[in-house]
Amino acid sequence: MRVATYNVNSIRIRLHCLDQLVQDGQPDVICLQETKVTDDAFPYDHAAQLGYPHVAVRGEKSYNGVAILSRHPFEAEERWSWWGQGDSRHLKVTFRDAFELHCFYVPSGGPDPDPEKNPKFAHKLGFLDEMTAWARDARLSGRKVAILGDFNGAPLENDVWNHKKIKRQVGHTPLESEKMATLLDAGGFVDVGRRFVPPEQFLFTWWGYRHPQSFQKNYGWRLDHVWVTPPLADHLQHHQVLSHARAWERPSDHVPVLVDLK
Question: I need a surface site. Which of 32, 51, 198, 222 has the fewest CB within 10 A?
Fold first, then answer.
């Protein structure tokens, strides 16, 4: 099974990017973030035409939103809210005799890395803390579980293009990196990207819109992640970042990440 995660940054605006992902990556399952559409307005027919008749959606108008598109049927679908918020940031499905899949869109945290001054950053930290408590209390490490999506965090030095310049910016602060490491440990997760690409090497999945030549100059961050528990890590085969997607027509600022499980 090939699983993709992709922050599409508005599914209705970027259906052509979804088409291109299917053509280039041929995933069996696609996890989307920032769909920015209500459930009733999601393009179910388009997904079916692409070969994904099984769709789980949790959306809202203009903001957030997650979806899972699959060629294979799944059994359970669950929507959980985190840190007391009702925003659409999590969706879970279970594939029979395979694994449990969680699609996450972690809050970005706003511009100021001070939870006392910035409630958006406090929201992000609280969200990560609740994910950690869940991973620990649910004893995920002994089950086949994958969590993936836009975690809005680049925890390692080479997850950003210039660690010294960026280490005080939201998304790469020491506090966020520490909380992501704690979450990784609580679930016994394997960071799939770093299983295949050593931490000594750059690995990016996002090039911002603010700098018009961010992609050309490789001013990247790794914000999109796939983490799996040890029983599922035994089935890992391949990992790929579709970096060229950043040059698609009217692209998202994120690119898809693909993982193969045997």
Answer: 198
Give residues with Cβ within 8 angstroms of 210, minimum separation 6.
none
Taking the C-alpha atoms of residue 28 and residue 52, their distance in angstroms, rounded to an integer, is: 8
Q: Among 34, 5, 16, 71, which Cα is nearest to 241's?
A: 5
Q: What is the mean pLDDT of each run of 10 residues along the chain (262 residues)?
A: 98 98 98 98 98 97 97 91 91 94 98 97 98 96 97 98 97 98 98 98 97 95 98 97 98 98 95
The answer to whether the beta carbons of residues 3 and 29 sit under 8 Å apart is: yes
Per-residue pLDDT tens for 132-162?
999 999 999 999 999 999 999 999 999 999 9
Three-state secondary structure call for residue 128 = helix
154 forms beta bridges with none
pLDDT tens digit string along 3-12? 999 999 999 9
- Distance CA(188)–CA(42), nearest Å, equals 34
> Of 131, 13, 129, whose CA–CA distance to 65 is shortest?
13
